[in-house]
């Protein structure tokens, strides 16, 4: 794998995800099948093709395929709205595939993140990975949360934070947590139980470094004190940007903890 120049993808130069991904992807072994939500201009698909040249890659976007998107043997594009759960479920059923790696980098709308995680994670093979990028949009202070969610709506960020903490304690999430996360939230209690039973661990990354260059102007002239680019763009060091979760599917040798009489995130 070449990590120094991943096809001009913002995963590397802005979000600085590369070292995170390098560490996790090295544990996957052979990667035969990848699903990506969010194609946009095609940089992420090109990045995946370069990282995993022999993998079958499926790109999902609300837009129909464009002539400038990467093409070639093993690359397939599908058109779907991430907000349409029955359509996502039907698309996955029609594909009838199990994936080594899923990368969710689509609309970043909290409801869409929840739908794709609930519907797609069960199709990650044991030991495989689900990467949820731009998870910061599910934070209550983020504009996409405020525009799309009622205040206090439980979402993917809350669920993954709860599972990560529970795993750090060697626990499954508590019944109290399930009730709070499903009450007027984006996941049903059945979704939460199923995901909790399938996830072995979660790592949540938040960029605390300067980007390599600016996503807005492409430049790299930064003020290291004001933490802005010469073009005026906030470099968002420890701000509401560049948060990703890497979620691993449990295997028979590393199962998710069983639920017991445990203390949850909110207490019991």
Please render the helix and strand layout as text:
Layout: H1 10-13, H2 18-25, E1 33-37, H3 43-51, E2 56-61, E3 75-79, H4 85-95, E4 99-104, H5 110-120, E5 124-133, H6 143-148, H7 156-168, H8 175-182, H9 189-198, E6 199-206, E7 222-223, E8 228-229, E9 243-249
Parallel strand pairs: 1-2, 1-4, 2-3, 4-5
Antiparallel strand pairs: 5-9, 6-9, 7-8
Task: Give structural notes.
The protein is of the alpha/beta class. It has a single domain (10-207, 242-249), classed as Vaccinia Virus protein VP39 (Rossmann fold). It is 30% helix and 19% strand. It has helices spanning 10-13, 18-25, 43-51, 85-95, 110-120, 143-148, 156-168, 175-182, 189-198; strands at 33-37, 56-61, 75-79, 99-104, 124-133, 199-206, 222-223, 228-229, 243-249. Strands 3-2-1-4-5-9-6 form a 7-stranded mixed sheet, with helices on both faces. Strands 7-8 form a two-stranded antiparallel ribbon. Helix 4 runs parallel beside helix 5 (110-120). The longest helix has 13 residues, at 156-168. It is globular. The relative contact order is 0.14. The model is unreliable at 261-268 (pLDDT under 50).
